[in-house]
Amino acid sequence: MSNRLPPAWAKHLKTQPSARAVAPKAAPPKAQLKAGPPRNQADDMLLRQALELQAAEQLPEAEELCLKVLARTPNHPLAFYILGTLGIGYDNEKALRYFARAVAEEPRNPYYHLSLGETYLKLSEFTPAIRHIQQALALKPDLVEALCALGDAYKAFDKGEMALSLFEKALKVDRDHPVARLGLPAALASLGRMDEAALHLKEAIEQRIAVPAAYNALVQTRKFTEEPPELAAILAELRDLDHGSAGAAALHHAAGKVLNDLRRYKEAMDHFKQGNQARGQTFDPGSYRSWVDAMIETFTPELVASLAVHGNPSEVPVFIVGMPRSGTTLTEQICASHPDVLGAGELSKLRRIANAIALKDGSEANLGKSVATITPELTRTLAEEHLSYLRERSPAALRIVDKMPHNFELIGLIGILFPNARIIHCRRDAIDNCISCFVLPFNEAHSYSSDLQTLGLYYREYDRLMRHWSKVLPGRIFENRYETLIEDQEAQSRRLIDYLGLPWDNACLRFFERDGSVNTFSRWQVRQPIYKSSVKRWKNYESEIQALIDALGDLAEV
């Protein structure tokens, strides 16, 4: 999302390329204030300074200046807007509130509607996202960022074909717009049209548009059996310091992907390590361990059982959980190939509910206070609201699958809200699972994955929490072992569909022919029949990953 100051300020905004064009998952972008006719000179000066502080990553100081403006000029729409941009990627709920206030004050400003819509999209709230982005386009039909945002919304809403036409329209407005140039091949890739996606990405690279991100996307479109010319080009790009740390991370991961395909594993791991280092992400395993302790102490079997009697009895919700890269996308595709099942992708709705009742607050005492707010009435309200949200995706499906992997942290909440929900836990060989996370350029939400030792310690906490949930909901969680699924696809697929309470359908064996968008790093794999090369893949890296193996301890099956 670009931070855009509205035209009502007569060129107060210079819209910059979205951060998505710089790297697959970049930091929130910055904005520039251009000279223009002032409304109030003192307010202008403070807001200009706020934008400069934001550009310097001094967010609290920037927020303070915006609040000063609001203290002097209540309901100042631009101050609300800038406060919204400060929350992007850090506190999206806060961003949502401020953008909504900006829209309320200046409802005919397309940029305010667009930013509000994009924030809804980040939170998987597709209906309001699409409504506000469409309003932005009604006000300014040639707004490229809005066309791209609507394309992203339709892609996430499993309407990839509708997304394509929007990115094509955006490119007619601005052929060199980086978000549009990367958005079109992303939509093609989500539909399995890898060759077409690759052509568009190569064209972007030739035009020097978002080069690191384009290379990173390009190497994901196929598996390499012989060294491509792109490898030398990527290594040459790495010598260009102008790409910055985000660009370097994307290029290192691109090089690592190609080298891994070519079975040059030591070179590949060197690049993956450098890529993760360039991302500069940090994670505190000790703090996370304390949070898991508090969750285990708070969500006892007795507590969940006592609150679940007020939950919604619907059998529609299905939650696929586990570590990322544990087979969650493959499992969803198998289930969603059944005619009575909708695969809704990775939804953040449950996380929003958890955040609203402060379940991410670390100590046992604080979690206890949060859980105390879950009254019978609130339980019924939250469950009904969540079910309505799922029903927006499909009014008729018998099962709707949310495959957000990190919902493994919130199984206690699932058990309370939906006592009849199906929960499928995808589990994979611990070392394989961790390596598969380490080699991908995940965003800040997965900062635990950028260091091998930290990743191993995080996995141990995930495993400990899942063992607890098995005691809280005995017999309720279906454990889907990746290796078992790979070894005997039909038998395990039949068990999955039986667990969903549905009759068998042979379409579930041909999941790779399923229509619809796939928007995760697994988009190439799930278009193929099941293959076994990913089992015990970690042995290719054995000499390079001792820190991970040591951190995993007894969970490492060596």
The gist of it:
By secondary structure, the chain is mostly helical. It has helices at about 40-55, 60-70, 75-85, 90-105, 110-120, 125-140, 145-155, 160-175, 180-190, 195-205, 210-220, 230-235, 245-260, 265-280, 285-300, 300-310, 330-335, 350-355, 365-370, 375-395, 410-415, 430-440, 450-470, 480-485, 490-500, 545-550, and strands at about 15, 30-35, 315-320, 340-345, 400, 420-425, 475-480.
The strand count comes to 7
Instruction: Note the gap between the termini.
Output: 44 Å
Q: Strand order of the main beta sheet, please?
A: 4-5-3-6-7
CATH superfamily descriptor of the domain at 289-434 and 470-532: P-loop containing nucleotide triphosphate hydrolases
CATH class of the domain at 289-434 and 470-532: Alpha Beta
Nearest-integer average pLDDT: 89
Tell me about the largest β-sheet.
Answer: 5 strands, parallel
Detail the poorly predicted runs. Answer: 6-38
- Sum up the overall morphology in one term: globular
Helical amount: 55-70%
What Rg is obtained from the alpha carbons, in whole angstroms? 24 Å
Q: Number of helical segments? A: 26
Content-based structural category? mainly alpha
CATH fold category name of the domain at 289-434 and 470-532 = Rossmann fold
* CATH architecture heading of the domain at 289-434 and 470-532: 3-Layer(aba) Sandwich
Share in β-strands: 5-15%
